[in-house]
Structures are given as C-alpha cells and as structure tokens.
Amino acid sequence: MVKINTELLDIAYMDRIVVRNLNLSIPTGKITALVGANGSGKSTILKAMARLIKPQSGNVLLDGKSIHALPTKEVAKQLAILPQNPTAPDGLTVNELVGYGRFPYQSGFGGMSKLDLDVVKWALEVTGMTGFKDRPVDQLSGGQRQRAWIAMALAQNTRFLFLDEPTTYLDMGHQLEVLQLLRKLNEDEKRTIVMVVHDLNHATRYAHHMVAIKQGTVVSEGPTAEVMTENVLSEVFGIRADIVKDPRTGVPLCLPYALADEPVAAAAGK
C-alpha cells in the first residue's frame, strides 16, 4: 500500500521559514482535512507534499522514496493536485480538459490510446460530467467547472488526490455537490484525498482525519472528533466555540460565539 509522509520538513519563502520540522503522515484510503487560520501554512504544506514547492530541508516521501528525486511522470501517475481557482484556455471543452489528465501516460505525438479514451470516459461518468463533455469549460457553472477539474485529476488515475480549498467561491449548493463527490470517490474508488478546508464543519462532516495547523506547526491531528475541541479552536483560530453533535450524523460541529481574548462576561452578553 503506497504511503505519503513528510520527515523534518522545512519550507521557506525567500529567507523566511514558514513551516519547520514537519513530520506528517497521511492516512491511506481516508479523507484528510488540513485546517488553520489564514497564513497558517496549510496550502504551503499541501503544495510541498505535491512537489509544487521544493522544501528548504527535509523530505516528502512517496512510498519511502523522496518525491523530489522521482521522475515527474512517475509522480504524476501517483498523485494529482487541484490548486485554488484553476483556469482553462478560452473555448477548451470539458472533454479536452479531462484529456489533459492522461498526459503522464503518453509519449511522443501518438495521441491518446484506447485506454486513455476509456479512462477519460470513466472520469466524466463518475463526476457526472458526461452530458457536458462538449461544453466549453468557461461556460459552466461554478460547481460544474469544479467537477470538470476533478474529472481531469481523476483521469490521471492516481492513488492520491490533493485539493486546495475545492469549495472556495462556490455557493452552498455547489459546495455540497463537490464535497459529496469527493466522499463518493473516496468510498467507491478508495482514493486517498487530502484537502485544505476553511469551513470546519465541512471538515468534520466529510473528512476522517484532521490536521490543525498554526504558524507552520501541527497543533493537533487525528480523527476529527479528537481534533475539534474548544482548546484546539482557541489556540489555532483564536475563537471561543461550543462543540455540538450534528443531529443527523453525530459528528462534532463548531458554533463560534466570541474571540478567545474577549472577557468571558462580554462574550456571554452578546
């Protein structure tokens, strides 16, 4: 079973270290949510693990091998990443976009094989995008566009799928559409999914594992119910919150009511 983890990872922008001595192991076959305040380093960690950023020191290990020492195409066959707000050239169709996911498996100018075409067809079907395959990407709704990009990532046929804030700028309906798709992919296709999430309640509803990050350091990690605590929320986000159980699923939900540094009496009076 292929694993991905970091060892003593330091990540720097110019001369400023933003992540230090990170040791993080991603549970295989699970959905992991990286959470933290703006600027905490969660997107930076995701990019480093996906080989988009080269660390200053330490290693990202893919099945025990340094990810930066592996050939690019080999990494692309194991790991796909969907960055924030990806853009496609004007007029590019959904089918063409998804076809780009087969690039790691192609050589020369031979075009796509029957296997490539079958995988593209499958990726469109599993994401519910078959009916939109001839539609230009720039003419899709927000939720449809995000599903098209996820289909492209799926066409890479990787074990790991990394997503940086996949629901940003989507309305509530489209957010649920994307998150339910990711959960289905995890359950049906056994994909290991790592996603940066802003909404803590989305994290607890859709992830099995949570990593809470502050200033490039892991404050807490583990099953979502163990990480979503009043103390962790106070330390990581600087808030006071009640933790209640979702009446439908039993997962913990966060109900913030004050900043952590507010006097208790003032917070209670609001």
UniProtKB/TrEMBL annotation:
Its main location: membrane. It holds the Pfam family ABC_tran. The keyword ATP-binding applies. InterPro entries: AAA+_ATPase, ABC_transporter-like_ATP-bd, ABC_transporter-like_CS, P-loop_NTPase, Siderophore_ABC-ATPase. Gene3D superfamilies: P-loop containing nucleotide triphosphate hydrolases. SMART domains: AAA. Residues 4-240 form the ABC transporter domain. Coiled coil: none annotated. PROSITE patterns: ABC_TRANSPORTER_1, ABC_TRANSPORTER_2. It comes from the Bacteria. One of its GO terms (biological process) is iron ion transport. One of its GO terms (cellular component) is plasma membrane. Keywords: ATP-binding, Cell membrane, Ion transport, Iron, Iron transport, Membrane, Nucleotide-binding, Transport. It is found in: Cell membrane. It is a peripheral membrane protein. GO terms for molecular function: ATP binding; ATP hydrolysis activity. PANTHER family: IRON(3+)-HYDROXAMATE IMPORT ATP-BINDING PROTEIN FHUC. This is ABC transporter ATP-binding protein.
